[in-house]
């Protein structure tokens, strides 16, 4: 179930964003979404979703205001399409997100890794090793893991679809319970590694 901008979030926006004006469309639409994997913190730029994060909303807000823009506010017109797609995905009605993604919070190397993850099909998984090979850096397993661990657009950029190997699930920003739940939503059983 999607949640709108709470009074606390509105207060945060007014205090921390000096250019915040409630009735003018902000550069960054900022809000939350509550779903079966917990609360996700959303931020949407004119180019796409820049954050879909499990992190604390104050940390996400600070990162976005420091690296993207300080004109941040609640803008349901831009947040609601993302929330609808997340609801459809969580209910098993959506297999591929159509909402554009803005990876400007990721390093250039991480962008390469995350773009590779967007090509991993719904209902399948890959490994850190296969991702490293596909980007031409077969020995960069730790760097690939760090890029996935720092994914600013979780769920939409499906970093949950990477496993250590056929028997080891591996970590996830939202925790192993969230990763297992996402696997159940997608019908992933026994780590079917994509070719």
UniProtKB/TrEMBL annotation:
Keyword annotations from UniProtKB, A to Z: DNA damage, DNA repair, Methyltransferase, Transferase
Domain Methylated-DNA-[protein]-cysteine S-methyltransferase DNA binding: 108-188
Keyword Chaperone listed: no
Alphabetical list of Pfam families matching this protein: DNA_binding_1 (PF01035), Methyltransf_1N (PF02870)
Annotated protein name in UniProt: methylated-DNA--[protein]-cysteine S-methyltransferase
Residue ranges constituting the Methylguanine DNA methyltransferase ribonuclease-like domain according to the UniProt record: 31-103
A GO MF label: methylated-DNA-[protein]-cysteine S-methyltransferase activity
Record EC number: 2.1.1.63
Biological-process GO terms, alphabetical: DNA repair; methylation
Annotated family: Belongs to the MGMT family.
Catalysis performed (reactions): a 6-O-methyl-2'-deoxyguanosine in DNA + L-cysteinyl-[protein] = S-methyl-L-cysteinyl-[protein] + a 2'-deoxyguanosine in DNA; a 4-O-methyl-thymidine in DNA + L-cysteinyl-[protein] = a thymidine in DNA + S-methyl-L-cysteinyl-[protein]
Organism of origin: Planobispora rosea
């Amino acid at each position: 179930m999607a949640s709108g901008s709470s009074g606390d979030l509105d207060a945060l926006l007014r205090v921390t964003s000096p250019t915040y004006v409630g009735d003018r469309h902000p550069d960054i639409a900022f809000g939350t979404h509550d779903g079966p994997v917990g609360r996700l913190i959303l931020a949407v730029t004119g180019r796409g979703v820049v954050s879909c994060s499990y992190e604390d909303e104050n940390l996400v807000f600070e990162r976005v205001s420091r690296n993207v823009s300080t004109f941040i506010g609640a803008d349901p017109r831009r947040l609601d399409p993302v929330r609808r797609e997340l609801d459809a995905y969580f209910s098993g009605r959506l297999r591929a997100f159509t909402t554009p993604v803005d990876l400007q919070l990721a390093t250039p190397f991480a962008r390469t890794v995350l773009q590779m993850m967007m090509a991993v099909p719904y209902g399948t998984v890959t490994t850190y090793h296969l991702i490293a090979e596909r980007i031409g850096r077969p020995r960069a397993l730790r760097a690939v893991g760090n890029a996935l661990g720092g994914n600013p657009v979780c769920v939409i950029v499906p970093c949950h679809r990477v496993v250590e190997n056929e028997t080891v699930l591996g970590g996830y920003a939202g925790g192993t319970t969230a990763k297992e739940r996402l696997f159940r939503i997608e019908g992933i059983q026994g780590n079917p590694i994509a070719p």
